[in-house]
Amino acid sequence: MRREYIIFIILLGILLSAGCAENGVEEPETAVTPAENPIVPAEVPQAPAEIVENPENNTSNQTAVENLTVPETEIVENPENNTSNQTAAENLTVPEIEIVENPKNNTSNQTAAENLTVPEAEHKTVEVKIEDFAFNPDSVTISPGDTVRWTNLDLFTHTVTGPDFSSGTLRDGDSYEFTFTREGTYRYYCSIHASMEGVVTVEGVKP
C-alpha cells in the first residue's frame, strides 16, 4: 500500500510539472524523500531459533516464542485431479488367483498316507527266576501285552499257579511264560511249596 502511494505521488508530481511547463510557469517539484516514505520490505517469517534455557532469560525467550506467528499453509483442492484419481481407483482391477490341483501329486500324497504305518509299541519279556524256594523277583510291574517268563533253577520241582494261568510241573531248567493282556493284579504261588508266592501287576492301556 505504501509503495502504491509513493508511486501515485511521483506520478502526480510529474503531471503537475508538465502542466506548469505548458503554462510557462515553473512550479517547484514536490520532492519525495525516501526518509518521509520509507519502503519497508515485506515481513518474511523465520523459523524459531533453538531456545537455550537460561534462568535469567526465560521470561524474554518465552515472550518471543509466544509472539511468533507461523503463517498457515493454504491447501487448494483440485476437483479435476480428485475426479481422475477416483476414476483410476474405480477402474483398478485385481487379477484373481486360480488354484490348479495336480492330480499326480494328490495321488502320490494319498498313496504315501495309505502306506504310512504307525509302529506298534514293543512288548517286553520280564524274567523271574525260581531258586532257593522263592520267586526272584517276587513282584513285577508290566504293561498289557508284556510277558513274564519263569525259569526253575532249583534242583527241586516247582509250579507257577495263578488265577488264570498254571505252568504245571517245572523241573530243573524248565521255563514257563504267560502274556498278560488285561490290567489287574495277579497273585500266584507254587502248588508244591505253598510258602512260595509272587505277584504280577499290569498297568496301563493296551496299545
UniProtKB/TrEMBL annotation:
<feature type="domain" description="Blue (type 1) copper">
    <location>
        <begin position="125"/>
        <end position="203"/>
    </location>
</feature>
<dbReference type="InterPro" id="IPR052721">
    <property type="entry name" value="ET_Amicyanin"/>
</dbReference>
<keyword id="KW-0479">Metal-binding</keyword>
<protein>
    <submittedName>
        <fullName>Cupredoxin family copper-binding protein</fullName>
    </submittedName>
</protein>
<dbReference type="GO" id="GO:0009055">
    <property type="term" value="F:electron transfer activity"/>
</dbReference>
<dbReference type="InterPro" id="IPR000923">
    <property type="entry name" value="BlueCu_1"/>
</dbReference>
<keyword id="KW-0186">Copper</keyword>
<dbReference type="Pfam" id="PF00127">
    <property type="entry name" value="Copper-bind"/>
</dbReference>
<dbReference type="InterPro" id="IPR008972">
    <property type="entry name" value="Cupredoxin"/>
</dbReference>
<dbReference type="GO" id="GO:0005507">
    <property type="term" value="F:copper ion binding"/>
</dbReference>
<dbReference type="InterPro" id="IPR035668">
    <property type="entry name" value="Amicyanin"/>
</dbReference>
